[in-house]
Amino acid sequence: MSDAAAAPRAGRRAALAAIAAVPAAFLAACAGDTPAPGGVPLQPVRVVFFEDDSVAVSPAAMGVIQDAAQVARRFPQAPVRVLGFIAPDPQDAPTTLQARRLSRTRADRVMAELVNLGIPQDRIQVLGRGQAAFADIPLEARRVEIHIGSN
Question: Fewest beta carbons within 10 Å, which of 75, 91, 136, 149?
Answer without folding.
Answer: 91
